[in-house]
Specification:
2 domains; Glutamine Phosphoribosylpyrophosphate, subunit 1, domain 1; 12 strands; 350 residues
C-alpha cells in the first residue's frame, strides 16, 4: 500500500516536471522566434546625388549599414529595445558624418549644444536632455534620465550635473569640433549678415541634421530615440523637436514608435511623432498611411520639411520624407536590409 502510494507520488512529480519543462521550453521557443525589426535615420534635407562623390556616398552607406546591423544583432540576441536604440544611435553620434555628438553643428557663438530623447512603448517612460555641452553621448544621458530619475527632461547645466552623478565624465566642448561644420557655420553667418537677419541663414541640409532609431524587440516592445546637434548658427538657447516627447520622439506599444528629422519648429507645432501614432491608435490608419499623411500632407501644407522613421508592434516600418533625401536604413522582420540616401534605395550589395 505504501509502496504503491510512493509510486503514484513519483509518477505525479515526474509528470509535473515534464509539463513545467515543456511550458518553459515553449516560452523560450516563442521568445526565440519572436520577430524583431529596426529602422534608423541620419537626417533629412537637400541631399542631392550630384553633391556626392562615390567615396562619400560609400562612407555614409557603410556607417548606416554598420549602425543598423549592430542594433539588429542586439535585438536578435534578446536585448531590450532601449539598449539597441542607444547603442545604434551612439554609432551615429561617434561619426563626424552626422549632426549628433562628434560632428554636431555649431551655434552662432561657435559652440555645440546637444539634445536627445528616448521613449519606451511598453511603459511610456521617457527621458530627454537639452542644450548640453559637456556630455559625450546625449542619448546615453537621455536613457539615464528615463531609467534613474523621476523626470522626463533635464536641460543645460542641470542635465550635465545629473550625467556626472551617473558616472558620465564631462568632456570639453571642442571634442565635437569638425572643419566641415565650422565651414557651414561661417557660410551661414555670411548669408545672415548679407540678408541683415540675426538667425535663419541655414540651408535645409544644414537645418535637418539629426539621427534616430526605432526598434521592435523580442519582448514585443517598441522603442524610439533621437539625438542631434540642432540647427547651424542657432542662438539664444534654441531647442528643436529632438528632445521633445511627442514632437521628435514618441513610442507606445498600442500604436507605434517614431523618430523625426526636419525643421524642428514645425515638428513641435504639429506634434508630428505623437500625431502619427494617434492616427494609428484612434483612426486605425495603417502605419504607412498615418506617417505618409502627416509628412507629405500636413507638414507640406504648413511649409515644414523633413521625415520620420516609424515602426509598430507587428514590425511594420514606414520611412516617409518630403525633402530631397534622407539618410536611412532598416532591417525588417524577415531580416532584409535596405540602405538609402536619396529618393531610391541603394543597391543591397552595399
Amino acid at each position: 500500500m505504501i509502496r504503491r502510494r510512493i509510486k503514484q507520488v513519483r509518477r505525479y512529480l515526474i509528470t509535473s516536471l515534464l509539463a513545467i519543462t515543456m511550458t518553459l521550453g515553449g516560452v523560450a521557443n516563442a521568445k526565440d522566434s519572436a520577430p524583431v525589426a529596426i529602422a534608423i535615420h541620419g537626417g533629412a534635407g537637400t541631399i542631392l546625388k550630384e553633391n556626392f562623390t562615390p567615396e562619400l556616398e560609400a562612407q555614409y552607406a557603410a556607417t548606416l549599414k554598420k549602425a543598423v546591423e549592430h542594433g539588429y544583432a542586439l535585438l536578435q540576441r534578446g536585448e531590450p529595445g532601449e539598449k539597441a536604440v542607444v547603442e545604434t544611435i551612439q554609432i551615429l553620434e561617434n561619426s563626424p558624418l552626422f549632426n549628433a555628438g562628434i560632428g554636431a553643428v555649431y551655434t552662432y557663438d561657435e559652440e555645440h549644444e546637444l539634445d536627445a530623447s528616448i521613449m519606451h512603448g511598453g511603459t511610456l517612460n521617457a527621458g530627454a536632455v537639452a542644450g548640453v555641452k559637456t556630455i559625450r553621448s546625449p542619448i546615453a544621458a537621455a536613457l539615464a534620465v528615463m531609467q534613474v530619475s523621476p523626470h522626463v527632461m533635464l536641460a543645460g547645466a542641470g542635465a550635465e550635473a545629473f550625467a556626472q552623478e551617473q558616472g558620465m565624465s564631462p568632456v570639453d566642448n571642442h571634442i565635437f569640433d569638425t572643419q566641415k561644420r565650422l565651414k557651414s557655420l561661417r557660410q551661414a553667418k555670411a548669408r545672415m549678415e548679407k540678408a541683415g537677419i540675426t538667425h535663419g541663414g541655414q540651408r535645409s541640409n544644414e537645418r535637418f541634421g539629426t539621427v534616430g532609431a526605432v526598434v521592435l524587440d523580442k519582448h514585443g516592445n517598441i522603442v524610439a530615440g533621437t539625438s542631434t546637434g540642432g540647427m547651424t548658427a542657432k542662438r539664444y538657447g534654441r531647442i528643436g523637436d529632438a528632445p521633445i516627447i511627442g514632437a521628435g520622439t514618441f513610442a507606445d506599444n498600442a500604436s507605434c514608435a517614431v523618430s523625426a528629422t526636419g525643421h524642428g519648429e514645425y515638428f513641435i507645432r504639429y506634434h508630428v511623432a505623437a500625431d502619427i501614432c494617434a492616427r494609428v491608435k484612434y483612426q486605425h490608419d495603417s502605419l504607412e498611411q498615418a506617417a505618409d499623411d502627416v509628412i507629405n500632407n500636413v507638414l507640406v501644407k504648413a511649409g515644414g520639411d523633413g521625415g520620420v522613421i516609424a515602426i509598430d508592434a507587428q514590425g511594420n516600418i514606414a520611412m516617409p520624407f518630403n525633402s530631397k533625401g534622407m539618410y536611412r536604413a532598416k532591417i525588417d522582420t524577415n531580416g532584409k536590409l535596405a540602405v538609402g540616401i536619396f529618393r531610391e534605395w541603394l543597391p543591397t550589395s552595399l
